[in-house]
């Protein structure tokens, strides 16, 4: 199989080009990110496969063994060196995207290279094809998946040259990425778009909100409130992708406060306030904290109330004290809201497990959240009590109707309702 490449690309493959190799008139290319000092053969083989499928390639070297002084200067600080390489490469890959040079990107890496790849693609648009062929430990790949829509291809064998096993992986990966192209979102759109958060125990509410919005010709994009979903939603809100938010399910704050596995990090419940877009906030599933297998629950929580949501997901009921802390954090983050904001409270329960007679039913613990919100939220944030369950139709109607009213009044300018 022949690989027709430019002289610059051959230099990059030899590891002699500092970071990037580009053709003078290349468009619609696939960028290949690799540490060419250790994964040069794999990157070259991958380029052959992609070019045999009719696409051009651009090699992006993120290796540390270059003759530019970095290696010696940072021999004792490899993490800092990798961070600097990732930052420089992220900027240049962004430039390649902006110029229309690349329409997909693939990485071939071990552990450190996978971490760098995650940083490099972190600011590429949602939906831009990103594929990582990696021999890194599963925990690292799982972490990358919480930050970006990377297509992960674990090799399970080490990427140590070209052999009967790595060729199978690289050929599949090459053909897959060659078949994908980024289609930029058109400026302006016919419909407004609202982000909604959901969990299995608040899905009925999310479904009803989405249906009500659809009746008004407004699109709904639902994010799972599992850590990765909330983090990605915040990123997309900050990028201007949404006109409003119905944040039904703020359970990720419970994990942030208590120490569960579904925290979305410190940026949760921040972007809509900065973007000045309308937002409804509800305490969906704040009655629970997420853990994995029962054996994974920290010893400090022994004696607490648990429920096996699945064989692999263990839920812990939050206490009144924890809910008060979650409520204070909610109010603190909403205090920065610059657009129309309403907190909607369901007095009869915040999740399917929190109905009367349910495993997590505890109205007093729930109310600690509301009391804390009311005490700490600023006056410009409306707090509305509803005598219903979060999954009752009345609740969804109130949330969706208020958002539609704000959009109709001009709360966002992306499209007309």
Q: What can you see in these coordinates?
A:
- The protein starts with 6 loop residues before the first helix and ends in a 9-residue tail after the last helix.
- It is globular.
- With 417 residues, it is an alpha/beta fold.
- It has helices spanning 7-13, 36-52, 70-73, 78-98, 111-120, 138-145, 166-178, 203-215, 228-238, 251-258, 271-275, 320-334, 363-376, 393-408, and strands spanning 29-34, 57-61, 102-109, 130-134, 151-154, 193-198, 219-224, 244-247, 279-281, 288-291, 306-310, 313-317, 341-346, 382-386.
- The chain is built from 14 helices and 14 strands.
- Helix 13 (363-376) links the parallel strand 13 (341-346) and strand 14.
- Helix 8 crosses helix 14 (393-408).
At a glance:
The protein is built from 14 helices and 14 strands. With 417 residues, the chain is of the alpha/beta class.
């Amino acid at each position: 199989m022949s690989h027709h490449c430019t002289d610059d690309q051959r230099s990059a493959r030899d590891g002699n080009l500092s970071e990037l190799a580009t053709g003078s008139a290349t468009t619609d290319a696939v960028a290949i990110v690799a540490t060419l000092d250790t994964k040069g053969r794999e990157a070259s083989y991958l380029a052959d496969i992609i070019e045999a499928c009719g696409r051009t390639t651009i090699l992006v070297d993120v290796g540390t063994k270059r003759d530019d002084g970095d290696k010696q200067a940072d021999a004792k600080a490899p993490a800092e060196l990798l961070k600097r390489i990732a930052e420089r490469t992220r900027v240049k890959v962004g430039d390649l995207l902006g110029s229309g040079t690349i329409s997909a990107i693939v990485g071939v890496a071990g552990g450190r290279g996978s971490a760098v790849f995650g940083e490099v693609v972190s600011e590429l648009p949602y939906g831009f094809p990103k594929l990582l062929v990696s021999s890194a430990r599963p925990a690292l790949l799982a972490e990358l998946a919480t930050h970006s829509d990377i297509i992960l291809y674990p090799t399970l064998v080490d990427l140590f040259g070209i052999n009967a096993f790595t060729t199978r992986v690289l050929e599949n990966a090459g053909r897959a990425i060659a078949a994908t192209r980024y289609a930029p979102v058109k400026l302006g759109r016919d419909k407004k778009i609202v982000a909604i958060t959901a969990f299995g125990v608040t899905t009925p509410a999310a479904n009803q909100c989405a249906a009500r919005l659809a009746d008004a010709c407004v699109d709904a994009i639902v994010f799972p409130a599992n850590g990765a979903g909330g983090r990605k939603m915040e990123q997309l809100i900050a990028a201007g992708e949404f006109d409003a938010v119905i944040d039904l399910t703020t359970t990720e704050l419970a994990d942030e406060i208590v120490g569960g596995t579904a925290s979305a990090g410190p940026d949760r419940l921040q972007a809509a306030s900065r973007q000045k877009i309308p937002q409804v906030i509800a305490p969906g599933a704040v009655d629970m904290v997420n853990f994995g297998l029962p054996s994974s629950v920290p010893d400090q929580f022994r004696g607490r109330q648990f429920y096996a949501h699945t064989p692999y997901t263990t839920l812990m009921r939050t206490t009144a004290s924890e809910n008060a802390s979650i409520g204070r954090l909610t109010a603190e983050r909403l205090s920065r809201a610059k657009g129309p904001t309403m907190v909607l409270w369901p007095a009869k329960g915040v999740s399917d497990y929190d109905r009367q007679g349910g495993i997590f039913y505890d109205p007093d613990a729930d109310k600690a959240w509301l009391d804390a919100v009311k005490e700490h939220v600023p006056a410009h944030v409306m707090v509305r009590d509803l005598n219903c369950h979060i999954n009752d139709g009345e609740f969804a109607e109130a949330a969706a109707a208020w958002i539609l009213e704000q959009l109709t009044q001009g709360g966002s300018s992306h499209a007309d309702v």
